[in-house]
Amino acid sequence: MATSSPGIGIAQVPVSCYFCKGQDIKWTCVDCNVRMCNSCKITVHQGLQCAQDHEVVSIQDISGSRPGSQEVTSVVISLVVNSFTTTLPAVHSLLCSDDDLLYFTYNGQTSDKCQLVKGKLLKSSIKIIQMLQREISDIAMNKDGEILFIEHHDHKIQVLSHTGEVKTVLDSSPMKLLAIHVNKDNEVVVGLREPGPPFPVHDFSVRQVIIFSGDFQRRETIELDKKGNKLFSYAYRIRTDSRNVVYVIDRFDNDSNGRIVAVDENGRLKFIYDGQKDTGTFQPNGITITPSDNIVVSDYYNEALHVINSKGDLLGLQFIFKDLNIYDSFSLCFDTEGYLLIGCARGDNEDNGKISIVKMVDSLV
């Protein structure tokens, strides 16, 4: 590691305000990457239309949270509340509605088991309300409580109404849909790719995340970083936080190796999380966002939960199979009471997957 000695007489240039060039620096804009005085923060930066949703933090906060200073806890889950056996071999995607209805899917090799299930948690079981026999790869819920879904290797977004009616609301052909999510503003965020084999990714491959308005008008296409490099290889799962920052599970290959790519709603890269060096392989499967905008990721290979903050710093890492006997976690969501639900595959000598209900450590939520 390179170091500098105070004995070397190198002149240090004081940092000045980006706008007025004064030296009374108080704030920095994380998105613009500029520092500013208190006056310019109020009179200049806040007046910029493009900066309305930018994250502005004090210099003191930055100096107090330098990389490496954040303590990482090995306890993410403080309590396992319950575990429910489902009717499916695995729970590949999982949602919980405001009225505590569950929606979960299986999309695996046992094709006759591929279903979307609507159910309600009882004290000791899941009451099945509705089943839809489809090979569904991902689901989302709009503000009206309707389920949006995409089928495996398909190019249509379909909606399951409260009455059980299914209708197509968008056709993305020839592009194939990979993932779907609805943000807090009822905008629909999807991952897409060109037809053909998913891997390897070539220069001519088209890998995108697109944000549609609630009436399915294209608002933003996210594909390349500032240098023209592809941001995504295969957008497997998508979630957004309270500021509509987009978090994508991005897969590299057919073995589910991947990373987390965070971009703002205008497509600017915020960070990339590749897992931890000491755990080696990183296979993110499920993702959800806490009320404080921390990101919870299930790591299939390491049988672990990672919790990172909105800057990409690791806050917690727990090996949930070793500690809690929760195995093969595929999907995550929170219920209305703040409990974390973990959708899992079936274990040895078991026929069906499970949904575990757990309580996270308060400091991580």
TrEMBL record:
Q: Which SMART domains match?
A: BBOX
Q: Which UniProt keywords apply?
A: Metal-binding, Zinc, Zinc-finger
GO molecular function annotations of the record: zinc ion binding
What InterPro entries would the database entry show?
6-blade_b-propeller_TolB-like (IPR011042), Znf_B-box (IPR000315)
Q: Does the keyword Protein transport apply?
A: no
Q: Which residues form the B box-type domain?
A: 12-59
- Designated name of the protein: B box-type domain-containing protein
